[in-house]
Amino acid sequence: MAGGACRRVLPDLVKTLRREVPKISNQTLPSLRRAFSLYDQINLIDSVPEDQLRFQGYTDTGFTVNGVKYEGSLLIIDNKLMSWSPKRFSEITAESLSIFQIVRPVPEILILGCGRHIEPVSLELRRFIRSTGMKLEAIDSRNAASTYNILNEEGRVVAAALLPYGETLQ
């Protein structure tokens, strides 16, 4: 008898479940791309100490750092910002990063903003960066700016060398 009751209840349960309309939430879920993009965190904290650099935006030709717009490539070491000579990814060499042979303390990591796309870093350049004692993170400039912000806010000793977002390998 128990088996017969089960056979009658199960189809009724299935019919009931099919009739119920799922509740639709008003909240939208972030896409996977947004959920894993550091770029979304670029403006996570608006108030930062005066002596701490913070990327606030970017264009195809430059960056906004602490409310000031800069055109061209940038190099940031120890919360000091300077113009950087490479205009294309192909111009990034050990010589263009030679300042890291004398900087103390040596940054823990160099975030290399490749422009619009992530580019493969030559073995020679990787060896040079490793010889300075730094780790390398080569990513597109949009995410490089955001990564710099996050690591800098954590108090890490971090450096950034970024090409404008519109730049490519060429």
TrEMBL record:
Transmembrane segments: none annotated. One of its GO terms (cellular component) is mitochondrial inner membrane. Keywords: Mitochondrion. CDD domains: Mth938_2P1-like. InterPro entries: MTH938-like_sf (IPR036748), NDUF3 (IPR034095), NDUFAF3/AAMDC (IPR007523). It is found in: Mitochondrion. This is NADH dehydrogenase [ubiquinone] 1 alpha subcomplex assembly factor 3. It comes from Dioscorea cayennensis subsp. rotundata (White Guinea yam). The keyword Mitochondrion applies. One of its GO terms (biological process) is mitochondrial respiratory chain complex I assembly. Pfam families: DUF498. Belongs to the NDUFAF3 family.
